Amino acid sequence: MNRRIFGWFLGLGVVGGSVGALVAAGAPGLNQDQTPPPVPLGLPPVQWPADNPYTHEKAELGKLLYFDPRLSSDATVSCASCHAPEKGYTDCAPVSTGIKQQKGGRSAPTVINRAYTTLQFWDGRASSLEEQAKGPLANPIEMTNEQEADKAHDAAMGRLRQIPGYVALFEKAYGDRTVTLDQVAKAIATFERTVVSGNAPYDRYKAGETKAMTTAQVNGMKLFFGKARCDSCHLGFNFSDESFMNIGIGWEKGEPADLGRFKVTGREEDKGAFKTPTLRDIPLTGPYMHDGSMATLEEVVEHYNQGGIKNPYLSQSMKPLGLTDEEQADLIDFLKNGLNGEGWQQIKTPKAADFPH
Predict the structure, then answer these.
(1) Which one of 38, 55, 62, 138 is CB 3.0 to 4.6 Å from 32, fit for a cystine?
(2) CA distance 80 to 111
(3) pLDDT > 90: percent of the chain
(4) Is residue 4 predicted with pLDDT exceeding 50?
(5) Selected catalytic residue, list 142, 146, 192, 242
(6) Among the three residues 196, 224, 258, which one is the final residue of a domain in this structure?
(7) SS3 187
(8) Which pLDDT score, from 0 to 100, does residue 30 have?
(9) Residue 127 pLDDT greater than 60, yes or no
(10) Is 209 annotated as catalytic?
(11) 192, 111 contact by CB (below 8 A)
């Protein structure tokens, strides 16, 4: 599909769950709150998957599961360990730290506005947020002592079934007390789809509030969509076209340090390609790139201005930009101050007494 046309679809908000009408059907026979939370200015309604519609009960269950380290084998790591609200739903580290203080190989991407995304993880190996939620539970570097996925998932479900308070919440959300992996994944994904960001100065400026951004930030915005060509990939309301691009990261030795999307597709042209992230709330989610190799937005802009590290699979959109120092400063000002939004800050982290026992 033509990227500009795809960007138009992104602007309409028809990606992220299943494409289609907003679904509002809860578990049969249950009296549930099926009204999704409102989204801020600049965002379209979340498209809830037909097989995982929104309910307040499921979202609340998912929030508790998201923050509960008891999902890990030794009760030390939760989803929030690597995707913490106070750190922009990342961990602000080059690579994440899992069970037994093991280091992963990639930076933790933000959860913010994942409701509007398609393939998950830097390499796109998960087809949905539901599938993504299952991954860390079975990863021996992240949350489990088990070496096999089925055993890891079974062990995690076994731990939850031993907690009466959780069994009651699963019954409230799903109408039964079985506590399955799919139920856990759907609950976490439901919560994650409520972590949204909009009503940024950019959104208010586009809505007619001319003083929402400074002159330098407006100039930076014009550069973003013009000379800097940032919208070659960072387009649509979520500032991402969901593509996988090789922008010349990790090629210092002539070979990719991480094969990226290639590991999923096996296509030669996907070597060193990674998913284009959203730029919403970008000042909060550094360090940047899939390997966390750039500590500041200044480094990121300079990388693009130089056209990236040359390699056989470098994206055709990666060309030297010729931005002046002043233009770079204005672009960075827009990124730092024009795209910080509201919405996710309203979510309160559960206290110890809130977790089921």
Answers:
(1) 55
(2) 10
(3) 90
(4) no
(5) 142
(6) 196
(7) helix
(8) 81
(9) yes
(10) no
(11) yes
